[in-house]
Design goal:
Number of helices: 12
Strand content: 25-35%
Shape: globular
């Protein structure tokens, strides 16, 4: 016993003498780094509560002919000594091009530890940035004689948890994030994984305990913890694999077609591995840690980038079963020698001139800036499921879509068309046509594109979240910026804050969106967990605003949307995005024109945001101040249990009165039984007033506060 105590004391003294500690500016977050038998190790606390237990860091390298050290390569896992340590403090306030607030403070304390691996005569650096709400760490590889080219076999960044926390997770997958969140103890992930893996057009799961980031956790002692990454550039997307015996998450990178994870040329920095922590769930939603760990904006003139509300023909297709294709005559399509004018149209193609004019008129009448048209271009007859390389040319319209006339007509109404580029997963074909496709957009005045990556990736054998495919997504964003085009990529990798650096990245899908409400539905808690998970890295094009939630009222689809009508209004506030769709059909909005007034009024860009109440997968209430105005909007969304919100209007300007419109679930509203029941009330309010609002099962509310 004495020997054991002596050994433990000796180890503690040794680590204490060799450890480096960095704390957050407010002192609440503390990160300690040390070497344990030559292995880089860190731990983390929040308000003196343990958040991350001692966890190892390092990279496993391939003995590969393409590496500088070839078959003599050695892992960057151990055998290190500390060569140098540097600390720094940084504090700035920057202005996002668009966002939840007009300004963002970037304030952190930093520790950079240079490590030497004597056996290979090379140095690496591990950098920690510690904020009041968490920390980021990354690996840095200075260029040097013994470290030029490396092939990453796996990254072994650990996050050792302090217990069997509640986890809000989706299955780890190299190709899709379109899963519904499972809420369980960490120890239950293995037993629940099989049921969690629901079918998708492209999916590659890898482990019975593998999950995706952003991963939200809640501890028994009231801490909220979020694990994610920031600034994923020229590197594969990170998943987490759980050692469920020891409750340790470890990074698991997406491979490429060769099975390797990353090809690195120094100097190089990996993405940041992030831990956000608080004892208040609202802080998780308000955190800017991911954005702050990205580089500043690289676009000099951003005047052409603008938040946008739009509508489009998409819901007719997704929910109503109408066709992206033009004809049923073609068993296969070869774009190089096909004349569509000789084909018989099947008459089920919404992307036609007359129908699109109808949407343009609706947008112009209701103050929507753009109209998205999917299925406008040739090639949809055999676009999916054949591993086909040359699927689309992204330039040639179907015979029933007059591209010049429609753009001229839209512009005459003060509206623009939004371009659609589905790649069918063929990234090499898209890059082959990218310059011509973007130039066509410039010719006709398009300034935004929704791109898609449905199906397996070509080059064949690659994955949606590999290093090379991630490089493709960023290449498209950079090229789009040259053409003054905003990008909204669907089926791309989940965001990691790159919208700070490239603010023309105005949205992504990268999660289970509204379309799944047409495929059987999502649980009502789905939209009150996504802000804690998927939205940590950037906004989502969730496509809200479905008013006729029972789809059988207008088409043959038996599915229904698992919210009330007011719950749909709430999403314009709780699911932050500078790109918001009014996704339903114009005629469905006309049935509820008084409720549609909120969509007309609500902003997409904000000077201030206040999260008033929040609990993962339970409820979220947020107040936002519209950019450049004194007007505020409040939205609340809840799960299937309903919720009572008490909204104190303390955020309003003192001495000012506001016209208040409240869009609220009716007393008998219910997302299953009576989804369209709502009440609209008007009153005058001032700072300090209180609104007591009851949300139905699967419901929500929306409030507009217009300054007098």
């Amino acid at each position: 016993m004495k020997k054991t105590l002596f050994t433990a004391l000796a180890l503690a003294l040794y680590l204490g003498a060799n450890a480096q500690t960095v704390t957050s500016p407010d002192g609440n977050v503390s990160v300690k780094f040390y070497l344990q038998d030559g292995r880089p190790t860190y731990e983390m606390t929040y308000k003196k509560k343990e958040v991350i237990r001692p966890s190892h860091l390092g990279l496993e390298l391939a003995k590969d002919k393409h590496a500088s050290n070839g078959t003599n390569e050695q892992d960057l896992m151990d055998g290190f000594t500390v060569k140098d340590t540097k600390t720094a403090t940084f504090d700035e306030t920057w202005r996002p091009v668009w966002g939840e607030t007009a300004t963002i403070r970037n304030h952190y304390n930093e520790l950079a530890v240079t490590l030497n691996q004597a056996s290979m005569q090379r140095d690496i650096r591990i950098r920690f940035r510690v904020y009041d709400d968490g920390m980021g760490l990354r690996y840095e590889f200075p260029q040097q004689q013994k470290l030029n080219y490396i092939v990453v076999k796996e990254e072994h960044t650990q996050f050792a948890m302090t217990g069997d926390h509640t986890a809000y997770w989706i299955p780890g997958d190299y190709d899709t994030q379109e899963y519904e969140t499972v809420i369980s103890k960490m120890s239950e992930i293995r037993s629940k994984m099989k049921a969690a893996v629901t079918p998708n057009s492209s999916q590659t799961t890898f482990s019975p305990t593998g999950v995706q980031t952003s991963l939200q956790l809640k501890t028994d002692n009231g801490l909220y913890i979020n694990l994610h990454e920031a600034a994923c550039v020229n590197y594969p997307t990170m998943h987490l694999n759980l050692d469920d015996k020891n409750m340790v998450f470890e990074s698991w990178l997406t491979p490429d077609a060769t099975g390797m994870k990353g090809y690195v040329q120094t100097p190089f920095n990996t993405p940041w591995r992030t831990v956000i922590v608080s004892d208040d769930a609202r802080d998780m939603l308000a955190s800017n840690l991911i954005l702050n760990l990205n580089e500043p904006c690289k676009i000099e003139d951003t005047s052409w980038i603008h938040p946008t509300k739009y509508c489009g023909v998409w819901w007719e297709m997704i929910a109503g079963g109408k066709q992206w294709s033009y004809t049923f005559d073609l068993p296969s399509v070869n774009l190089e020698n096909l004349d569509y004018s000789k084909c018989r149209p099947h008459g089920q193609h919404p992307a036609n001139t007359e129908n699109v004019k109808r949407y343009i008129d609706f947008a112009a009448k209701n103050g929507l800036q753009e109209v998205l048209v999917e299925g406008w271009n040739i090639g949809w007859e055999d676009w999916f499921g054949h591993y086909k390389d040359y699927v689309f040319d992204f330039q040639t319209p179907y015979p029933d879509f007059d591209i010049k006339y429609l753009n001229d007509y839209a512009h005459s109404k003060g509206v623009k068309l939004m371009m659609h580029h589905e790649t069918s997963g063929s990234t090499q074909n898209y890059e082959r046509h990218l310059e011509a496709a973007y130039s066509l957009m410039n010719k006709y005045g398009y300034d935004a594109v929704k791109s898609g990556y449905v199906g397996d990736i070509i080059p064949r054998g690659d994955y949606h979240y590999s290093q090379s495919t991630n490089n493709h997504y960023l290449y498209c964003i950079k090229e789009a910026a040259k053409h003054h085009i905003m990008v909204n990529a669907h089926e791309a990798t989940r965001p990691t804050g790159l919208c700070r650096t490239w603010p023309n990245l105005v949205g992504n899908e990268s999660a289970r969106g509204t379309e799944y409400e047409a495929f059987g539905g999502s649980e009502p808690y789905h939209t009150v967990i996504l802000p804690f998970t998927r939205l940590q890295g950037g906004p989502m094009d969730y496509t809200p605003g479905i008013f006729v939630t029972k789809l059988s009222e207008w088409c043959d689809n038996k599915s229904y949307v698992h919210t009330t009508l007011c719950g749909q209004l709430a999403l314009y506030l709780t699911m932050y995005s500078p790109l918001q769709m009014a996704a339903d059909l114009p005629e469905n909005y006309e049935k509820y024109d008084d409720a549609f007034q909120f969509i007309r009024d609500v902003a997409c860009d904000w000077d201030d945001s206040r999260y008033l109440e929040a609990e993962p997968a339970k409820y979220i209430t947020v107040a936002r101040k519209a950019k450049g105005t004194d007007n505020w909007f409040v939205g609340g969304k809840c799960d299937a249990e309903g919720h009572k919100s008490v909204v104190r209007l303390d955020f309003l300007d003192k001495g000012r009165k506001y016209d208040c419109a409240i869009y609220q679930d009716a007393p008998n509203a219910d997302y299953e039984k009576n989804p369209s029941a709502y009440v609209i009330t008007h009153r005058t309010v001032k700072k300090g007033d209180v609104l007591k609002l009851k949300q139905a099962r699967g419901g929500g509310f929306a409030v507009s506060l217009m300054a007098k």
